[in-house]
């Protein structure tokens, strides 16, 4: 490995000098400053996930790289917050090129799994099994410029959504948007909507997992220049109709958990919410909204572009790596098989929704 020693610490054991070095290295990266890649996110994950660790790579006596991860049985490693984190990978000095297997060995890891690996991660991209698109909204030139893009690429969508916003104001009550809502009740409302949406669509309810609920609650109170929990809410007639919780840095708003009250679905409150989020983000100097990987109709309507992310596992020989492969690879291949066949994917979605209806009391 073209570097010196490696120390593996719990996130809370990092010194302020090491955290500042992490931020400095991240600032020098040419990748978007996604808040999931900041030490604050790893620190909060460490408070709800006892197996969270950070490998600090030293070179010439200074911290030159950081690999946040979680360590499972037999050393099966995974990206920090895997399953909810939308941007993953190590933070390395640009000229540092560790040997992957040696780094895993130094961390006592038999494998390292990722599903949203950042595109510029030269260390782990060669181990990717799949490439996905994460959909983004570019507001670097301001919200008005973004609206002009929407008018050019989907004029009917923008016209219809703005008309629904006006109708919402007439029929339900004054429309109000709060970009950074601090009311805990609003966050609980969002979680309730999102849980219902997961069940309605036959997907696993993330908020039924205690660690995710605790993670979001802690991040809601996180206020750091490059990682701030942000709850945005659309109100009409004094009541919340749509909400979103995500993380923001000075330049990127990472969209994470959006949901709305289905009683008001005819007004498309979720789309209105995203337009107002884009407007508020642009006013804050944020240049990009990252809506995450995975196709969705609302993303197709709102996006201006996409960025690649990668899914896969880096391994070194051993029983842990074999178990990692057996645990994830067949499922990943099955998902890939379905995604590549639109008719089969559509049938799978209908089947999930039907199963969800049958489970309802």
TrEMBL record:
Which InterPro entries would you find in this protein's record? Acyl_CoA_acyltransferase, BioF2-like_GNAT_dom
Classification of source organism: Bacteria, Bacillati, Actinomycetota, Actinomycetes, Kitasatosporales
Q: Which organism is it from?
A: Streptomyces mutabilis
Residue ranges of every copy of the BioF2-like acetyltransferase domain listed in the record: 159-299
- Tell me what this protein is called: Cellulose biosynthesis protein CelD
Superkingdom of this entry's organism? Answer: Bacteria
